[in-house]
Amino acid sequence: MKILRGKSMKRLMPVLFSSVLCVFFLGAAWAEQHVIRILHMNDFHGFAEPYEPSGSNRLIGGIAFLAAKVGRLRSEKNSLLLAAGDMIRGNNWSDTSRGRSVIELMNAMKFDAMVLGNHEFDFGQEELKKRIAEAKFPVLGANVEGMGQLKQYVLKVMGGTRVAIIGVVTEYTPESTHSRNVAGLKFSPPADTLRGYMRELKDRVDIIVVLSHCGYSEDRLLADQVRGIDVIVGGHSHTKLEKPVRVNGTIIVQAWEHGKALGVLDLTVRDGRIVEYAGHLEEIMPVADLEDKTVENIVEQYRDKGDKAANEVIGTATVDFEAENVRRQGTNLGDLIADIMRQVSGAD
Asked: What CA–CA distances, in Å, run from 6 to 1, 2, 15, 19, 287?
């Protein structure tokens, strides 16, 4: 073994010192880097059980299977679980309890926050207030005035990173539910609302997440019009974004509909800033013995009520009903419903 001394050792000292400094600073930088995982869903509409979508021949979805996947993914990283609206209304399973069943599910799954969707108002304000009171997580609506039960935003600390989650719903909500359901409420343009909260929060947090029930095209406009939004977790348009989209520096995600997919977004954060991101959709399919048992018990509890309402025979049709194109053109199903509405209401 060769021992250095004198001038040789002096020449080597700066090199050794520089190496030690490099290792120290690299280690410090690595220590400050961590990953925040955002798990998200939207437009659930109470579809708690697996079903075959139109044009498909396989079962997909099932909230008990989605909940089990949430549990597995949550255990891997520091995570947030977010819902981007239209959760409680739209299926017999949820409608027979006026959305109570969905809130019970979400409590069991330990959601961190939810933004109102336009269809959250469909049962009326008094029922919505009950659902908000039952929720063990904040229900957001920063651009909704007149409902004091809502929060504008929620603050979280994730691995030392300060995160703000602001919720906004489409300003056109009064046009997509009955007018009496939103009487006395004001829905401000989301962009105007967000600009105000960006000013309020920019020095208090590191990352701003907007939980939006405005639709994908509107989310792109928000990203373009409002500076400083780090992430938009979207809903309303039922868009299946397989990968995150970046607009003007803002990461936009959305996870399809009806619990058929769970959105996963991993943010690598260093010194309070997002330096990398990766996202995808986890498609949900029923696999025996891979369901969350607690959530499955809740699904079964409310299933009988929904089945009883849906299985009552009120008549027999001699032909098949055309439902797939009911929003695009005249159909025999549309004619039947219109005739019933005219008869019941006494309309001309």
From this structure: 17, 13, 16, 21, 72
CA quadruple 255, 261, 262, 264: dihedral, nearest 10: -70
Are 168 and 210 a contacting pair, CB within 8 Å? Answer: yes
Q: Rounded to the nearest 10 degrees, how much is the dihedral formed by the CA atoms of 173, 253, 155, 169?
A: 0
Contact (CB, 8 A) for 263 and 281: yes
- 99/155 Cα distance (integer angstroms): 26
The residue assigned the tokens 């410090």 is 28
pLDDT, tens digit, for every residue of 320-340? 999 888 888 999 999 999 999
CB-count burial class (<10 Å; 0-12, 13-18, 19+) for 100: middle
The reported pLDDT for the residue numbered 118 is 98
Strand-pairing partners, residue 254, are 234
Average pLDDT over residues 82-94: 97
Residue 72, sorted as left (phi over 0), alpha (psi -120 to 50) or beta, turns out to be alpha
Residue 259 backbone phi and psi in degrees, to 5: 70, 20
Task: Tell me the C-alpha distance between 49 and 295, whole Å.
Answer: 11
pLDDT tens per residue, range 165-178: 999 999 999 999 99
Res. 20 pLDDT band, cuts 50 70 90: very low
- Is a pLDDT exceeding 70 seen at residue 204? yes
- CA–CA distance, 345 with 139 (Å, rounded to integer): 35
The answer on pLDDT for 68 being more than 80 is yes
Q: Dig out the tokens for 86 from the structure.
A: 């239209």
As a whole number of angstroms, the distance between CA 174 and CA 1 comes to: 84
Residue 149, number of CB atoms within 10 A of its CB: 14
The torsion angle over the Cα atoms of residues 219, 224, 226 and 232, rounded to 10 degrees, is 30
What predicted TM-score, i.e. pTM, was given to this entire model? 0.87
Predicted confidence (pLDDT) at residue 248 exceeds the cutoff of 50? yes
